[in-house]
Write a structure and sequence with these properties.
2 domains, alpha+beta, 4 strands, 58% helix, MetI-like fold
Length: 382
């Protein structure tokens, strides 16, 4: 290596060191997180599923509710577009038209067969059922469809509803329930944990008694009791908000304890005493000085709490205590896989289960990556 190259390399190293020592906390966390390949892959997968849920009406060729059922293709297998068959090659992807008839071989039950001589070609940006994109923009434009028929990428259920559209809408519903539940638990944890950690004394003792009482309440019996008192005439939206609120009200104690423990240590620091001598109020000190020193860990805890909220909603809907049809949630879709004949005859019912597992794993890996990135001593532990 020549002297010029050595000087250039030394200059680059010096700039890298300067950038490291002058970087903000957020920049350091992002740099550590970006170096974690598993967390980055999980983050991209999570962003993809959030995008799919957010734009579910545009990506779904048919309405996933009762209005979009396909009566001629009930319990139908997934229809994957093809480019060629025994009749030759096609530059445009296609599926086959289906015919529904009763067969003596199946005791006159309805049987769906493919007409391999009749192709239905895939089209992009088709017009179909009306919806509001992002709840604001009215539209009836959809990403794809077929000419003269319907396409079901994930198959259909017993009522002929499109499982692909239901899965996309279910992802967004579960994320929305989790978001509302996490927001409620986050606010309660900040208030209760912050007050208990800053003031201490008898206030801390009373709040910790309340926290321990909430933690000892078993969640499943609680939801079973609430479900017994939940009126049957409640709309799906009312049940949605009710379940989200309950999940938030029982999900705050863990984060509140962590905030309390941190503030009990930080409240004796000199910068807190300086703020008190300057006449700052207790709320101002907690909000502007104490909590920002714990921001990275709060963000990590929220990311880790998300999959548990989604899992709780899914578990409740699965056992019939949560959201039900016509609401599309991952738990409501997973109710169908509990039937014995599904495993033998309708394996495509398990496709929403794959998305549920992927969603939870993505949150877990992203949360673990953020936790390692927010820990300044994570490199020394390896």
């Amino acid at each position: 290596m020549t002297s010029a190259e050595t000087l250039a390399a030394g200059g680059i190293d010096q700039k890298a060191k300067e950038a490291y020592f002058t970087a903000s906390q957020g920049q350091l966390i992002w740099a550590r997180f970006r170096s974690n390949r598993t967390a980055m892959i999980a983050a991209w997968a999570l962003l993809l599923m959030v995008f799919m849920g957010l734009f579910a009406p545009f990506l779904s060729p048919y309405d996933p509710t009762i209005a979009g059922r396909d009566e001629n293709y009930e319990n139908g297998a997934p229809q994957l577009p093809k480019f060629w068959d025994e009749n030759g090659f096609s530059a445009r992807p296609f599926i086959y038209a289906t015919e529904r008839e009763r067969s003596i071989k199946t005791n006159f039950r309805w049987v769906v067969t493919e007409n391999r001589d009749h192709r239905l070609y895939l089209k992009l940006f088709v017009r179909d059922w009306d919806y509001k994109l992002l709840w604001l923009i009215p539209s009836n434009l959809h990403l794809f469809g077929v000419e003269g028929g319907k396409i079901h990428l994930f198959g259909t259920d017993a009522s002929g509803k499109d499982i692909f559209g239901r899965t996309l809408h279910a992802i967004w519903t579960s994320l929305a329930v989790g978001s509302l539940g996490v927001f409620i638990s986050f606010v309660l944890a900040l208030v209760i944990g912050g007050v208990a950690g800053y003031f201490g004394g008898w206030i801390d003792s009373v709040l910790q008694m309340i926290t321990d009482a909430i933690r000892t309440v078993p969640s499943i019996p609680l939801f079973m009791a609430l479900a017994a008192f939940m009126p049957d005439h409640w709309s799906s939206e009312t049940r949605f908000f009710f379940i989200s609120i309950i999940l938030g009200l029982i999900g705050w104690p863990t984060l509140a304890r962590r905030i309390r423990t941190h503030l009990l240590t930080e409240r004796t620091q000199e910068y807190v005493l300086a703020a008190e001598l300057a006449g700052a109020s207790s709320g101002h000190i907690i909000r502007r000085h104490l909590l920002p020193s714990f921001t990275s860990y709060i963000i990590v805890d929220l990311m880790i709490s998300f999959p548990y909220m989604v899992r709780s909603e899914t578990a409740l809907s699965f056992i019939g205590l949560g959201l039900k049809d016509p609401v599309n949630s991952l738990g409501a879709l997973m109710q169908n896989v509990s039937k014995a004949d599904v495993l033998l005859n309708y394996q495509w019912y398990f496709i929403p289960v794959i998305f549920f597992v992927a969603l939870v794993l993505a949150f877990v890996f992203v949360g673990d990556g953020l936790r390692d990135a927010a820990d300044p001593y994570s490199d020394t532990k390896k």
